Amino acid sequence: MTSDAQFDAALDLLRRLPPTAIPTHLNSLTALTPSLTEDLLSSVDQPLNTALDPSTSRTYLLCDYNRDGDSYRSPWSNKFYPPLPAAEEADATYPSERVRRMEVECNAAFDVYRSMYYEGTESEGAGGTAVGSVYLWDLDEGFAGVVLLKKEGGKARGGSAAWDSIHVFEVDERSTRGTTGSSSRTSHYKLTSTVILHLQSSLDNATVKEDGLQLAGSMTRQVEADLNVESVGSLAKDGGHVVNIGRMVEDMEGKMRNLLQEVYFGKAKDVVGDLRSVAPLTGVRRDREMQQNVMASMGR
């Protein structure tokens, strides 16, 4: 089997396995085929882990985009933890000064977004934990970044739940001029969004003990758009990028949230209904026959 065929087979397998177990399965696959390690790690989205920035006491999310060896860069302090060895510090990847300013602004904006839509704090609380992080890096014709959001909760209701959002975007800043001749700058945005959802309910009381029910899955969607970049705040045009990215992520998350609720959970409900009726089937058949008779009499 060629390396391309092995890679496609590995991705096909991972799509069919529970997303909560992806790290374990990835370790097994990379142990079997070490040559695919880099491609798999860069192509497969995993549930997000957290770490604490000791210099700011803020929690941040870990991913391949802020990783250097075994260390991860915090968006709050722009430092790697654990600290990189002196010999490696000079070669570490940091955003340019301009991109770092946008990164700081993005983290402030999505911190507000997190509190609005996810209801939770970075530490364990009644509403569960909700953490967000944004990382940016430079490209030849613009910049790219990732918006990460993680919410865990449901423990107070005797279960557990986790939502991981991974939004990877690229911004091509090659400007175009409007038809009026004025310098209306337009940039091309490409957004790839993945949501990993895991739900587990359990029933454990004095009379009934059950293992519970688990639902898990992931969804990926992509969108591209050419948007005007307006001057916003102290960052001017760069502030416009922050606004455009925020709107695209908000719109995409809303669509994916509705799709999960209306299509996937609705379909699961229909399947359960087909497997076992809530009411006795004799009564259901009788009601259906009465309805058919009424419709037939109205058509005469």
UniProtKB/TrEMBL annotation:
UniProt keyword terms in alphabetical order: Actin capping, Actin-binding, Cytoplasm, Cytoskeleton
Gene Ontology biological process terms, A to Z: actin cortical patch organization; barbed-end actin filament capping; filamentous growth; mating projection actin fusion focus assembly; mitotic actomyosin contractile ring assembly; mitotic actomyosin contractile ring contraction
Keyword DNA repair applies: no
Compartment(s): Cytoplasm, Cytoskeleton
Signal peptide interval: none
Cellular component per GO, a single term: medial cortex
Primary localization class, coarse: cytoplasm
Family to which this protein belongs: Belongs to the F-actin-capping protein beta subunit family.
PANTHER family associated with the record: F-ACTIN-CAPPING PROTEIN SUBUNIT BETA (PTHR10619), F-ACTIN-CAPPING PROTEIN SUBUNIT BETA ISOFORMS 1 AND 2 (PTHR10619:SF0)
Chain's role: F-actin-capping proteins bind in a Ca(2+)-independent manner to the fast growing ends of actin filaments (barbed end) thereby blocking the exchange of subunits at these ends. Unlike other capping proteins (such as gelsolin and severin), these proteins do not sever actin filaments.
Assembly and interaction partners: Component of the F-actin capping complex, composed of a heterodimer of an alpha and a beta subunit. Heterodimer of an alpha and a beta subunit.
The protein's name: F-actin-capping protein subunit beta
UniProt source species: Cyphellophora europaea (strain CBS 101466) (Phialophora europaea)
